[in-house]
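Private note to self, pasted from the team thread so I don't lose it. Backbone tokens:
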């Protein structure tokens, strides 16, 4: 009976090693992504998923990849057609402008506005509406000419990824949707294989440290091998009739489609671009463009009557009207620009453009899509795997001596 039990325990070694390999790899994958927010006592006692913790670094890497190698902000901006943009926002913009005119005139020239007949007010509205296409066209042209100073894509990406680390996870999980499950499964297979020599050694030499050491090696090796298989070799290599290449790199076309779709829909889209334009570092430059053309437009509206208007309301109020009109048009921008989101996303065509250029990247460049943000911390996953494997070895040792 003891002989049977002894051999049964012996045969359990590779099975337990397989379980240890799977568990360590499973935990390693989960530790890459979860928890999304730091849990514990900063800065030492606790954990945050490696990917969410690298959100800012990830954003910098992504923008460097996208802007330096794949897309040009200037080219993207030129895809916006002022006429089509106007057609999409004109109806809502005219409504906003009427509200701005009423508010500004009531605040700055209440008597003049109150005395003006309805037909006179309608004439003002009509004059403004007639001038909208020309004003929008000039604003779009100035924006396109100065887009680098106004629109900071790096700021956009960093802002979106740092405030929403779950989006960072989504990019990685969906891009590596076949690689990460492989890491988990491979731990079981490699763990079983590494468990066989441990079983043989234990049969001939039952030193107490052998099983913990075997567990440590299994935990370390399964994680390390899985990562290597995903990313190495970078280029296809022939081994007889078999062609081998890193799993992630082999799926370059598929991953490019998944990645570019997420970037277009959830990161670099019209809504986020508008938010960055209105609240980002370049918002002052954008306001200057609006101010320039709105002031010119107001002067054109008044034209010959300008001196009489100034005499009626005073020069100070006249300039107040212009200042308030510019500020309100800027502050209410989202109310009318949101009607252009669908058109802008189609015109920018970021997803399709990004996909094509990613698919044309060299394998060494394409690896930079997924790996660099956490590459320097891969050792943590491997070490954790080794420690967990060693703990499992001690548990196995305890089981034998019970």
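Design output:
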């Amino acid at each position: 009976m003891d002989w049977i039990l002894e051999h049964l325990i012996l045969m359990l070694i590779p099975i337990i090693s397989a379980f240890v390999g799977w568990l360590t790899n499973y935990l390693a994958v989960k530790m890459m992504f979860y928890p999304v927010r730091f849990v514990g006592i900063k800065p030492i006692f606790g954990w945050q998923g490696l990917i969410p913790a690298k959100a800012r670094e990830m954003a910098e890497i992504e923008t460097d990849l996208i802007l330096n190698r794949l897309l040009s902000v200037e080219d993207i901006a030129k895809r916006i057609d002022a006429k089509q943009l106007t057609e999409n926002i004109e109806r809502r913009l005219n409504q906003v402008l009427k509200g701005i005119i009423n508010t500004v005139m009531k605040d700055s020239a209440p008597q003049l506005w109150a005395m003006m007949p309805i037909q006179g007010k309608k004439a003002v509205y009509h004059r403004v509406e007639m001038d909208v296409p020309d004003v929008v066209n000039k604003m779009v042209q100035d924006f396109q000419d100065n887009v680098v100073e106004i629109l900071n894509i790096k700021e956009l990406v960093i802002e979106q990824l740092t405030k929403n680390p779950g989006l960072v996870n989504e990019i990685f999980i969906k891009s590596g949707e076949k690689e990460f499950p492989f890491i988990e499964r491979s731990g079981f297979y490699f763990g079983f294989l590494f468990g066989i020599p441990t079983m043989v050694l234990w049969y001939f030499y039952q030193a107490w440290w052998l099983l913990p050491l075997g567990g440590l090696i299994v935990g370390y090796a399964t994680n390390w091998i899985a990562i290597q298989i995903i990313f190495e070799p970078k280029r296809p290599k022939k081994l007889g009739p078999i062609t081998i290449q890193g799993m992630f790199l082999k799926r370059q076309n598929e991953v490019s489609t998944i990645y570019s779709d997420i970037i277009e829909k959830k990161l670099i889209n019209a809504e986020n671009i508008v938010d960055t334009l209105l609240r980002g570092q370049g918002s002052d430059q954008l306001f200057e463009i609006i101010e320039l053309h709105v002031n010119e437009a107001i002067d054109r509206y008044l034209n010959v009557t300008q001196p009489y208007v100034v005499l009626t309301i005073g020069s100070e109020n006249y300039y107040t009207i212009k200042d308030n009109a510019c500020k309100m048009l800027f502050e209410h921008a989202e109310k009318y620009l949101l009607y252009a989101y669908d058109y802008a996303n189609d015109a920018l065509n970021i997803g399709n453009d990004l996909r094509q250029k990613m698919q044309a990247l060299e394998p060494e460049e394409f690896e930079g899509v997924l790996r660099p943000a956490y590459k320097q911390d891969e050792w943590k996953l491997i070490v954790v795997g080794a420690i967990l494997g060693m703990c499992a070895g001690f548990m196995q040792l305890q089981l034998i001596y019970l």
